[in-house]
Amino acid sequence: MADTEPACELHLRISGQPHDLMLRLHGHEPTEDEVAGWMRDGAVVRLQVTETAGRTPHTMLVNFGSVVFAWLCPYQSGRGVNL
């Protein structure tokens, strides 16, 4: 799975944080309705992610009860993110 392209990007704003978190999702690409349900239910969801290019995908548990807004967008290879 380390050599696979991400399925999409998930951008999250966590309550109390000044910046968004961008995760590259691998495997299952959730729908907007799934993400909305996770937020509504305050679910803790296990996601297969990479935060930056070149990293090996790993599991991250995300508490969607702390997410104040989120959006999905297509993954674009080569787009740089400076952290």
Q: Can you characterise this structure?
A:
This protein has 83 residues and is mainly β. The chain has one domain (8-73): SH3 type barrels, CATH 2.30.30. 12% of the residues lie in helices and 40% in strands. It has one helix spanning 32-41, and strands at residues 8-14, 21-25, 44-50, 58-63, 67-74. The chain has a five-stranded antiparallel sheet, covered by helices on one side. A hairpin with a 7-residue loop joins strand 3 (44-50) and strand 4 (58-63). The radius of gyration is 12 Å and the shape is globular. The mean pLDDT is 88.
Beta-strand residue fraction? 35-45%
How far apart, in Å, are the first and last alpha carbons? 24 Å
* Helix share bin: 10-25%
Structural class: mainly beta
Tell me the major beta sheet: 5 strands, antiparallel
CATH architecture: Roll
Q: Which regions have little confidence, pLDDT < 50, spanning 5+ residues?
A: none
The CATH class designation is Mainly Beta
Strands side by side in the biggest sheet: 4-3-2-1-5
Element-level helix/strand string: EEHEEE
Mass-distribution shape? globular
Please provide the count of β strands: 5
Q: In angstroms, what is the radius of gyration? A: 12 Å
Number of structural domains: 1
What's the CATH topology name? SH3 type barrels
Overall pLDDT, averaged? 88
